Amino acid sequence: MKKLFPKSLLAVVLCCSAGISVRAQQRDTLPPPPPGRPQTDITPFTLSSPQQFEIAEIAVTGTEFLDKSLLLSLSGLAVGDKVVLPGDHFAKAIQNLWGQRLFSNIAIYITKIEGNKIFLEIELVEKPRMSSFTFKGVKKTESDDFITKTGLRKGQVITDAIEQNTLAVVKKHFAEKGYRNVSVRMEVKKDPPPAINSATVIFWVDKGHKVKVNDIHMVGNYALADNVLKKKMKDPKETPRFTLYPEMADAWVDSMATTDDYWKTKSYLSPTRTLQKLNPYFRPNFFANAKFNEVKYDEGKEKLIAYYNSKGFRDMQIVEDTLYPSAKGNLNIELRVDEGRKYYFGNIIWRGNTIYSDTVLSRGLGIKKGDVYNLELLNKRLGNPPGPEGGDIGSLYMDDGYLFFQVEPVEIGIRGDTIDYEIRIQEGPQATIKDIRIAGNEKTNEHVVRRELRTLPGEWFSRQNLIRSQREISQLGFFNPETIGINPVPNMQEGTVDIDYKVEERANDQLELSAGWGGYIGLTGTLGVTFNNFSLRNIFRKETWDPLPSGDGQKLSVRISSNGKAYRSYNFSFTEPWLGGKKRNPFSVSFYSTYQNPNAFAEYYNQPVPNPGAYFRVLGGSVSLGKQLRWPDDFFSLMYTINYQRYKLKDFNYFGLEGFDNGVANNLSLRLTLARSSVDQQIFPRSGSSFMLYGQFTPPYSVLNPDKDYKSQAIQEQFKFIEYQKYRLNAEWYVPLSKPSGSDHKSLVLKVAAKFGYLGRYNNRTTLSPFGRFELGGDGLSNFAVYDRDIISQRGYPVYYTSNPKLNPESSGPPPGYSGFTMFNKYVVELRYPFSLNPSSTIFGLVFLEAANGYRDFKEYDPFRLRRSVGVGARFYLPMFGLLGFDYGIGLDRIRPGGGLKDAAKFTFMLGFEPE
Question: Entry's InterPro entries (predicted)?
Fold first, then answer.
């Protein structure tokens, strides 16, 4: 067949950016070709006589950046395909390519026909690509946020979807801030040559005015007051505004301001409460000037319905809500409600229960006939769904192995305003634990995690044991407590359950490193390292060192500290938490050595030294062994500790005792510690309590030698073997004040603590030891541990102060005759809130109130004469360095007449631990 179209083109289908339109033509000729294409005179087919052709060649033109073979594949056309003309093959190809949203124009042309062979050209016009983009009318921080959320990037094809997505992101961002009339316009500017098919995109943003809620008008509420309902709908962070109704209120205020009633009332009420007390038209407006947030508004309506339901109005519904502008352009909301009638619980019948009697279940449910109807409360008491705190019917069954337990409350009758219920129970069989699987412990050996679990293969399933296991894993300190996962996998056919534990390792080894030049004392510094997941058994296996063998849950600590010529200290400790590997029997050993030179300053400056060669040396160690108790419960533990210190003094008098500046003193003691801890985690406890009581006793040398006159001997001889008895009591409680919120379960926590200490003699024939006493004040970071003294911090006060104000200097040195305290009281109240619970940087802030005091003897002791302080602080837990703390405390009893808070304030710092 001869060429029908030399150097010419026949338009078959043309598709522009306005869309695709394919329909059958009801005439005998094809439509004319587009402008610029020559008209052909002869066609081998008509609409009334279609013919079949074979595609011989396909050319793709007009693309700059896209792969032509890929585009051809996406079109669905291929060389060798049979097509019928006229037909819909080319229309489908255009639809396939158009769906990629990469082109502004697509056309398919027939370039040549030879016999039954057809040659095609797919002409594409690519949409331009973004060479750059910017947001106008917004802050840079907002612009950066929009770029992140929209995923915009250079080189991206400019499509309608980009504009729509950007518009949605920007509107959502500003809607959360109270802007309801946001407009976004995308402007595309083609780049001049030599740029190829690229453009600059500008997003013009006009956020408009912030829309605030002026007021909410409630209509149809007769049982519950407007203000109560508004309070339930509002964001707890919003503070209420107050409004006077009606206009006569202004005149009323003017008249009342001169009456005796106003002034009498004001004397014991705040101004706001005074107006409310005296003026019935004065009401709080919980929404005045609060920004409007549509999401929170919908949540508020849900809260409103839930609150009505909890008060017995189960049929309550919001009939209509209307939003209209106020005179100042803000938003008024009118809510029209239908309360319905108030309902009460009637008879509650139990069905299907064989394990527990109706009486036991009714007592656990805690809902009686005649109580106000509350379906949410009913489901909560039934454990539907199970709550984390337990105490419901579901927990009662699941703690006894009934994992397959199901409960369904069914209304069986409504008599007027009374609803009868039948509680249908399917107890199911008790589930036996089959397999325990642990995942995520990349560093910690599996047996370390497994030995902490309260869920053991072969035992009955227990929900309470699951919760306890989660706590024990968290208490290890090796894993992120926020991501510990527990997943029971039940198998009802076999009556078994597998339990999957998932943990996330976190760094918990700590490094302490500091250095400096201290002038007269020379080079100072501290080098300390603590490995909290050490493995002693792998100490000789070189391949396990990274940097030391780890994974067995043991603790190894080494610390060297020096203040040049003035002071140096060496400390070593090791702890095995499960001695023998079968029971929680913690075993610890520690050794330490210290040296102190009181003449370092004088020697450096060549000043006269009254006692050349003076020093104070301590060599000590301890061994302890503990065991977990079963009674009163298994949160209790008992610890036995043997301590020994050898003190050597040469011309060194620190203790305020005449004549005690030379000699050797030996301190051998036994400490018995009874402790109980149920706190949920180590770093930021949210719940639970901690209790510790210990008694420390040296051998009663004076009791064993009743005929010896100790006080007639030299002081060095009296303290050759130190004698005392010592008692300490610490108690702490953690109470969550808000429900956990956010993905990391942040909540406000109240901490309450009380502490007490006493040091005494066995009899009056001896001099009370200067060792083992208490130091009170400061931040707890001191060298008093050298002298075997307990350091009790109090924020806002210096280290040295006593219950006698005349002996309280503002200097750093001790007052005359000061030798430490033999008794103390301390009480603490803290409000804590976490800013970050990330395991790599846990941060929380706090405000505190403290009251404490130290006493030299029983005659001076008065538990109600306390030094008070208030302040704020922050805690930072960094795995590499442990706990860092900063507190700013104001000693209220340090405030002097005419003085300011600055003179009574003290900034304290803590490192590595929470001070006592």
Answer: Bac_surfAg_D15, BamA/TamA_POTRA, D15-like, OM_assembly_BamA, POTRA
Would strands 406-415 and 418-426 be described as parallel, antiparallel, or unpaired? antiparallel
Instruction: Give the best-scoring range by mean pLDDT among 72-81, 340-349, 510-519.
Output: 340-349
Any alpha helices (H) in 427-548, and if so which ranges?
Answer: 446-450, 463-476
Please compute the mean of the pLDDT values over residues 899-903 and round it to a whole number: 75
Measured CA to CA in angstroms, residue 10 lies from 82, 86, 104, 125, 759 at distances of 19, 13, 21, 19, 109
**228 by DSSP, 3-state: which?**
helix
What backbone phi and psi angles, to 5 degrees, belong to 607?
Answer: -90, 160
Q: ∠ CA(317), CA(320), CA(321), 5° rounding?
A: 115
- Closest by CA position to 85, among listed 122, 54, 41, 56: 54
Q: CA angle 570-755-751, nearest 5°? A: 100
Lowest mean pLDDT among 219-228, 369-378, 551-560, 895-904: 895-904
Determine contact, residues 586/576, Cβ cutoff 8 Å. yes
Q: Which residue type occupies 61?
A: T
Nearest to 819 by CA among 770, 782, 785: 770
Structure tokens at 324: 């209209």
Closest CA to 123 of 14, 6, 5: 14
* Beta bridge partners of residue 850, listed in sequence order: 828, 869
Amino acid at 581: G
Residue 732 predicted with pLDDT over 90: yes
- Using CA atoms, how far residue 172 sits from 162, 184, 864, in Å, is 15, 12, 57
Amino acid in position 459:
E
Q: Residue 350 corresponds to which tokens in the numbers above?
A: 């139990």
Residue with tokens 């075993």: 587
CA-angle at 335, arms to 330 and 337, nearest 5°:
175
- Lowest pLDDT segment from 173-187, 344-358, 542-556, 667-681: 173-187
Q: Which two tokens stand for residue 521?
A: 């004392």
Nearest CA to 875 out of 820, 906, 837 is that of 837
In this predicted structure, what is the pLDDT of residue 350? Answer: 96
Given a cut of 50, whether residue 286 has pLDDT beyond it is no
Please, are residues 600 and 790 in contact by the beta-carbon 8 Å criterion? Answer: no
Strand partners, 620: 592, 645
List the one residue out of 453, 445, 458 whose CA is nearest residue 500: 453
